[in-house]
Amino acid sequence: MQAAAPQHLLLNRRFWPLFCVQFIGAFCDNIFRNALLMYVTFVLADRIGINSAMMVSMAGGIFILPYFLFSATAGQLADKYEKPFLTRRLKLIEIFLALFAGLSLISNNIYLMLATLFFMGVQSAFFGPIKYSLLPELLREDELVAGNGYIEAGTFIAILLGSICGGLLVVTPNGPEYVTVVLTALSALAFILSRKIQSTGISNAAIKIDFNMLRATWPLIRDAYINTAVWRCVMGISWLWFVGSIYLTMFPSYVKDILHAEETLAVWFMAVFSIGIGIGSILCQRLLRGHISPQFVPLSAAGMTIFGFAIYWFSGADSRLPIILSLLGLSICGGLFSVPLYAILQARSESSHRARIVAANNIINAVCMVGASVYMALLLDNGHSIPHIFLVTAFLGVAVAAYTVQLVRESKDRYVRPPL
Fold first, then answer.
1. pLDDT digits over 360-396, tens only?
2. For a surface tag, which of 77, 109, 159, 296 has the fewest beta carbons within 10 Å of its beta carbon?
3. How many domains does the chain have?
4. Which region holds residue 179: left if phi is over 0, alpha if psi is between -120 and 50, else beta?
């Protein structure tokens, strides 16, 4: 009997509960994150004398910090216990986090806001290894590209919609109350949906959980590194997060200081970037037709580089359309670039170690996102403009494109064909 077509995966009982749970989680995280930033900037900054720019930087660091602290433990737990069971527990905790998030906004307690943001980061750090290592257990091999494409597209769309909704809700009259109701209702829905995720087996019950962060992290990184194909995927995915962090961070200043446009253009840039990632992620399945293959990875990396050069080139133009189209091209290439890498990482990892490999990937991603902040700060401190940062990043992309060519050459099975 012929297998169901991957394009119907969103209706498949094996996939849609996980997709909905992860979409709601990313949506809620970004509702609260942006609500916090907007509330601090436009309400609390003048009322209690807070430096809003410092708070924005601090909030980003607080949310990423748990990925360094807890990813190793999260990967061990996800390999040791049944992943749907862990997902249900995390989503139950998320309901209480939503209540604390609302309480922090309503009470204007900045310390409770930051503590809640930290624990939301902890919850995300524990869920990351679960969702990506769960996909190969729920889906057939020929569905992995499509599944990763939907997850990637859903994540970026959820980030965009959550950021917009959080910013709009919190500045309305009774905004903190509205945010509380939305977060709590959605978290409860995610918990209900998490109970629909199909049960899977335990990957490796013999694992001894090591709660020493430093001691537990190194074996994860080592295991990912010794698997050449997996390590190249980790570095490629981390490159996308590095580039994405640069553009998403620079958009407001780029629009204000370089393009001399209204701040709404920065929102449009964020929307174009997120939608482009989604288009590229879904388009990847059409191009690969279920094959787990790095075939288009170097070409996509080259496309990101070319469109990065184009954004620099058009920064001085009168029309904004070439910049928007270049940004759309860059982000579509980003989706085409990352989805096969996630699928290869999953397919090439041993099932008994897969969650820990994903955790190692998350740690390296977090390192690259922090590295992007340091990279931008160093270039700006040395007198480089934002377009020059885009230019230097595009030049770095040439090396990345060459690096990913090795993934194709080293792949023993360049086209992993779906079963007939």
1. 999 999 999 999 988 998 998 888 999 999 999 999 9
2. 109
3. 2
4. alpha
